[in-house]
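Q: What does the assembly look like in three dimensions?
Context provided by user:
Components: two
Sequences:
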Amino acid sequence: GLECDGRTSLCCRQQFYIDFGLIGWNDWIIAPKGYYGNYCEGSCPAYMAGVPGSASSFHTAVVNQYRMRGLSPGSMNSCCIPTKLSTMSMLYFDDEYNIVKRDVPNMIVEECGCA
Amino acid sequence: QAPTQDTCTSCGLGQPEESVRMDVEFLEAVKRHILNRLHMRDRPNITHPIPKAAMVTALRKLHAGKVREDGRVEIPNLDGQATSDHEVLEQTSEIISFAESDELASSKTSLYFLVSNEGNQNLFVSQANLWLYFKVFPSNGEKGVRRKVTVKVYLQEAGASSTWSAVEKRVELKRSGWHTFPLTQAIQALLEKGERRQNLEVRCEGCQDVVVTPVLVNPDDEAHRPFLVVQARAANSKHRIRKR
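A: Here is the predicted structure of the complete assembly.
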């Protein structure tokens, strides 16, 4: 996956970090200190769609099958999407002042790719 | 991007303002996203802090490991080394609830817990344990002597005067310390009924004879405040799948 550096317009991962202290959420979120709200942006030219390793999805497999049969789905647009997500563990207070530790799947975008 | 002549101060602040507006909107979207994933409508209103002593004690008892600084989950592999797990497919929760007591409670042995069912989602309680601290007051020449007491935890339905026994445990005490009492079924039943308050009564048989006392809710002893640890997962995902 590419990292956005301001020089490329291709599909890449834009890092975005939110410090819970800066938004006044550190009174109820004990850990972690912030959230990596990374997201995907950029264009997906035809040659990038379904590049092995960039996005292994069911949709990619279907599009590749079309290609192999010489049927180029020219009208089919490729999307820049998260291709690898990770779980985030959070420790926080709820409304009842209980301490909750929760593992939330698919919270952090680790990689982006075209699909 | 390097500023051009077109973006001088005389052009007004349209562009930066728009950028700020986009940032604020994006930030709000991310905040909403976090609350949605935690099944919360709004952020909790924290009006008074939990005593630090109680919090530190409870956090040390957390079952499911620590939270990394960046929030990513660490699960020890077979070699005992921590690895980052990208494939935790279900949402698991661990809830620590601190004991409260009614000021008007007729009995000093009564306490209650408010256990949130987190946005009314179906939670399957895999384990729930009550943690109680027992203080031993050894008299002269009695240090290191084992004392056996029987602790009974009773459940009480809200508004009802009747109680029924949930746990009976023989506890052997050599020195002061924490002891756990399983309440899995009681907490599961509480959440299934859609209720959140669990009243308990703790009785200790033989404690007075051997100078032992369970510490209940006492503002002067927050470090030993009783608490309940509930491990739960979403009811629709009964199997934990992990890819290593």
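Follow-up: The mean pLDDT of chain B is 74.
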